[in-house]
Design goal:
Shape: flat
Number of helices: 2
Order of helices and strands: HH
Strand content: under 5%
Structural class: mainly alpha
Distance between the termini: 43 Å
């Protein structure tokens, strides 16, 4: 089994990202929706063993 991402998988990921951004923009509470989307993505990343704290943006 190959670890490379297929073109269809990349397109699917882009469509998901597009839909999620649309959902955030159209939400009554954009911050709450963005935090929920972040929570979902963190769970997916962590299921693949990626430590999300290493990816968090640090405050100035």
């Amino acid at each position: 089994m190959s670890d490379s991402v297929t073109e269809k998988e990349m397109l699917s990921n882009l469509i998901d990202s597009y839909a999620n951004l649309q959902r955030i923009i159209k939400s009554d509470d954009a911050k709450q929706e963005a935090e929920y989307q972040l929570q979902l993505i963190k769970a997916k990343l962590e299921s693949f063993g990626i430590i999300t704290s290493d990816l968090e943006r640090k405050s100035n």
